[in-house]
Amino acid sequence: MRTVTIAVQALVRVAGLIQITLGVLLWTGHGTQLVGVHMLVGILLVLALWTMAALAARAGTPPALWILALGWGLLTVVLGLTQTRLLPGSAHWLIQVLHLLVGLGTIGQAEASAVWMRLGAANVSSAGQGGNRRHSQLVHDSSGEPVSEAPQGARRRHSHGGDPPLRPRA
């Protein structure tokens, strides 16, 4: 699953860069013939986000993370397909700014999902080896499955400001 996550994350980054570039061209009145390409790459970007959300759900990330990503992808598609009809006239730039922010949020959602999966995988791989709880508060059983939140105070800061010392799991 790690390889698929990395591939989807790379696709999101490339598609995101293409979208930002095409968006700037379209916003400045250049390349109007590229609207179809911008829409196609946008749909590809949303499909990549939804794939990342499915991977995140399968990896056991918090449901709020991947549910938000699914909803955000739907918002991105709806706004992208209807933006030319929203607030026409001199105030249309507000819709363009909203479209840009929603698009950047799409990229951010996919990146956040990848980070959550990477941190979860690092936590699972360290189970039984002393465990590194600096990045996650999940406690895992001997098979590496998350079982509960860490006990209250497990991430308490010491007076020197650093993280508490790592303790082997029982």
Describe the structure.
The chain has 170 residues and is mainly α. It is elongated, with a radius of gyration of 20 Å. The chain contains four helices and two strands, in the order ααααββ. The protein has one domain (2-125). It has helices at residues 2-27, 35-58, 63-82, 92-125, and strands at residues 138-140, 146-149. The protein is 61% helix and 4% strand.
Defining key terms:
mainly alpha, two-stranded antiparallel sheet, 2 strands, 170 residues
Brief description of this entry?
Helices cover 61% and strands 4% of the residues. The chain has 170 residues and is mainly alpha-helical.
Order of helices and strands: HHHHEE
Distance between the termini: 28 Å
> Which residue ranges are poorly predicted, with pLDDT under 50 across at least 5 consecutive positions?
124-136, 154-159
Rg from alpha-carbon coordinates: 20 Å
Helix content: 55-70%
Name the overall outline: elongated
Number of strands: 2
Beta content: under 5%
Average pLDDT works out at 82
Number of DSSP helices?
Answer: 4
Number of domains: 1
Strand count, sense and barrel status of the largest sheet are: 2 strands, antiparallel
Looking across the biggest beta sheet, what order are the strands in?
A: 1-2
The oligomeric status of these chains comes to single chain
Topology summary:
Layout: H1 2-27, H2 35-58, H3 63-82, H4 92-125, E1 138-140, E2 146-149
Antiparallel strand pairs: 1-2
Helix pairs in contact: 1-2, 1-4, 2-3, 2-4, 3-4
